[in-house]
Amino acid sequence: MLFADTCVGREEEIVALLTRTFAASDGPEEGVLIGTLADNLLRRTDSKDLFAFAAHGDCGAVVGAALFSRLTYARDDRTVLVLGPVAVETNAQGKGIGRALIAHGLRALARAGVDVAVTYGDPAYYTQLGFAPMDQAIVPAPFALSRPEGWLGLCLAGEAGEIAPLKGPCRCVTALNDPAFW
Ligand SMILES: CC(C)(COP(=O)(O)OP(=O)(O)OC[C@H]1O[C@@H](n2cnc3c(N)ncnc32)[C@H](O)[C@@H]1OP(=O)(O)O)[C@@H](O)C(=O)NCCC(=O)NCCS
Q1: Pocket test for ligand 1, best of 104, 120, 125 (most atoms within 8 A of CB)
Q2: Distance from C-alpha of 72 to C-alpha of 173, rounded to nearest angstrom
Q3: 169 touches ligand 1 (CB under 6 Å)
Q4: Would you call 52 helix, strand, or coil by DSSP?
Q5: Which of 87, 161, 165, 177 is the most buried (most CB within 10 A)?
Q6: Shortest-distance Cα residue to atom 17 of ligand 1
Q7: On the CB side of 94, how many CA atoms lie within 13 Å of its CA?
Q8: CB 98 less than 6 A from any atom of ligand 1
Q9: What is the CATH class of 2-181?
């Protein structure tokens, strides 16, 4: 398995992967929603606000993708990225690819000087990768969260300890700027 620190040139393949994977796991409507989100992130987001990682199988095809985009805190100059969406090809799931891809991405982000990674998903999965539940008073979210228990964060800078409160308000990239995602 090879991990790439860019998705440039593979946008169409990755959008198709995310669309069919989420359609298989959560139904066709979710597939379209997440596929459109991935398209907007990959093709319509400023490159300085997007960090995209892909897992390539032996024949070179993309079998997994993890997209991180910037969260901006109005009164805080730390670099914060939110992970999502992330997916692994349905027939390749459960083999550790997702975990290895996200861990690879997090290491690359730490090397690039990113301070904090957050995500909004299943705590049972993401806590295995070092994410911990977060209080929105410490790490404000860009929208009211329908599942606050899924708001998770990981400090990547320095000693990688607790996240010091981020001073909002918080703004996400345009692609995620829709309450449907939160
Ligand atoms: C979630 C996903 C990216 C994980 O990738 P993966 O390569 O299958 O996961 P790994 O093999 O690295 O990890 C497997 C572990 O995750 C758990 N897991 C897999 N999918 C999960 C999910 N959707 N929610 C919670 N846990 C999940 C497995 O039970 C397993 O746990 P274990 O090792 O303790 O038995 C992948 O299953 C996927 O694409 N799912 C559909 C889309 C999705 O739900 N994406 C996440 C939301 S953005």
Answers
A1: 125
A2: 8
A3: no
A4: strand
A5: 87
A6: 125
A7: 2
A8: yes
A9: alpha beta
In the numeric block, which tokens belong to residue 148?
């606050």
pTM of the model: 0.95
Q: Is the pLDDT of residue 138 over 90?
A: yes
71 lines ligand 1 (CB under 6 A): no
**Ligand 1 pocket check for 24: Cβ under 6 Å:** no
Using CB atoms within 10 Å of the CB of residue 46, give its burial: 0 to 12 exposed, 13 to 18 middle, 19+ buried.
Answer: exposed
Residue found under tokens 């990547």: 156
Q: Which of 63, 88, 104 to mutate to test the pocket of ligand 1 (most atoms within 8 A of CB)?
A: 88
Query: Tell me: the pLDDT tens digits for 21-67?
Result: 999 999 999 999 999 999 999 999 999 999 999 999 989 999 999 99
Exposed, middle or buried by CB within 10 Å (0-12, 13-18, 19+), for 154? buried
Does ligand 1 come within 6 angstroms of the Cβ of 93?
yes
**Any atom of ligand 1 within 6 Å of the Cβ of 85:** yes
Q: What digits encode the pLDDT tens for the residues 144-165? A: 999 999 999 999 997 768 899 9
Which residue shows structure tokens 């690039």?
112
AA letter at 151: W
What are the sequence ranges of the domains in the chain? 2-181
